[in-house]
Amino acid sequence: MKRILNNRIRRGKFLLPVFLAAIVLISGSCRSTHPMTIEILVPAENIMPAGNNRVTVVNRSLWPDSLDKALVAADLANDAARECIIGLIHVIESSGFADTLLIRDIAELDSSSIQFPINWWILDTLAGGEKGDVVIGLEYFAVTTDETGDMVAEDIFPGISADLYFSLDLSLAVHSFWRIYHIPTRSIHEEYWARDTVTLNSTGVNLHDAVANLPDLSEILLETAYFNGYDYGRRLVPFWVQVNRFYYKSGSKGIREGHKLAMQNRWLEAARVWKQETSHHNERKAARAMYNMAVVSEVQDQLEIALDWALKSYYLEADPATKKYIDLLSERITERKRLEEQF
Predict the structure, then answer these.
(1) 215 shares a domain with 303
(2) Last residue of a domain, one of 237, 264, 289
(3) In terms of residue numbers, what domain contains 191?
(4) Is 189 in a helix, a strand, or coil?
(5) How far, in Å, CA of 296 to CA of 255, rounded?
(6) pLDDT tens for residues 145-181?
(7) H helices within the chain, ranges in order?
(8) Between the CA of residue 254 and those of 158, 259, 263, 289, 330, what are the distances in Å?
(9) In terms of domains, do 64 and 33 share one?
(10) Do residue 204 and residue 304 come from a single domain?
(11) Are residues 200 and 331 both part of a single domain?
């Protein structure tokens, strides 16, 4: 059983499952380089079992525990559990790893049942019999809070202090427990705990006032729950992330011409110009052109060629940034081998 602790809320967009790096150029302030971002496909940490064309997600936590009924009502925690499911679903949908996605609910009387997996005959029914491949169960969902606070006093005159305001720190945590059932082999692929925590601060003239001044907890809870499920989904399927890169935009006439073409997304034409510069008699200019060729190759998803150009660039000029890029490309090549095994 594995466990992960995430201490942040992140907003993001869903990335379409295309299989070539998408390029986005952004403005920068450095004179000789131009920053950019590319989207790369990252392998799953623990890929779902093979034959997962039909995935059923079971919400076993219809009546989740909310351990602080004063701040988080049971019905709100129930809505948060569904948001957690939605976050997971969005990742699987965008990955293209499942042809069919079903959502099912099971009512549980208490949380003690999570120690027992769902019966296989129930799973067969939920997943549609022989048509079902994988069932992902949200076995348990809970919301917990932790509050600390005190009056803040300051000196108003030498030797005289007074209580000025009450400061409240509230930690809101979402806990989820997942099981993955592989129907064909009658095996449990994974059991996994996940927790996301967000910390809020509020002030007021007293505790009651500080609580009243807290932001909308329902919105924060639903968003935290959504990303709890979203992050878990990214563990199960390959996903796209944006990474930072740069290329040289100056140093020679050819490099500048290639930059103008790259800004128009004419990367192959830019590559032809930069390739001519790789034989420049000035080693620094040639090394920069070689580095740019490495970037173009990565944009075209030709990682081995990109690594070869980066190594040539580093051989001419041992730039630390080039060494870092060599390490990144080597890591991507290793990850691509994992990706090929996952598709």
Answers:
(1) no
(2) 237
(3) 54-237
(4) strand
(5) 13
(6) 888 888 787 777 777 666 788 899 999 999 999 999 9
(7) 74-95, 120-127, 207-212, 217-236, 253-263, 267-277, 283-299, 303-316, 320-342
(8) 70, 9, 14, 9, 28
(9) no
(10) no
(11) no
Cβ neighbours of residue 224 under 8 Å, at least 6 residues apart? 9, 80, 172, 174, 196, 198
Q: What is the DSSP letter of 213?
A: T
Q: Which tokens sit at 262?
A: 């790259």
β-strand 239-248 against 134-157: which pairing, if any? unpaired
Contact of 90 with 230, CB cutoff 8 Å: yes
Instruction: Provide the CATH number for the domain around residue 72.
Output: 3.30.160
Is residue 49 in some structural domain?
no
Total count of domains within the chain = 2
Q: Return all residues near 127 (Cβ < 8 A) that are at least 6 apart.
A: 54, 56, 102, 133, 134, 135, 183
If you search the block for the tokens 């029914």, which residue do you land on? 125
Tell me the C-alpha distance between 97 and 188, whole Å: 19
Among 47, 92, 40, smallest CA distance to 343 is for: 47
Q: Cα 140 vs. chain centroid, distance in angstroms?
A: 22
* Boundary residue ending a domain (237, 254, 272): 237
| 110 and 158 assigned to the same domain | yes
147 in Cβ contact with 202 (< 8 Å): no
> Each residue of 48-93: pLDDT tens digit?
886 667 899 999 876 544 444 444 566 788 889 999 999 999 999 8
Q: Is 204 exposed, middle or buried (0-12, 13-18, 19+ CB in 10 A)?
A: middle
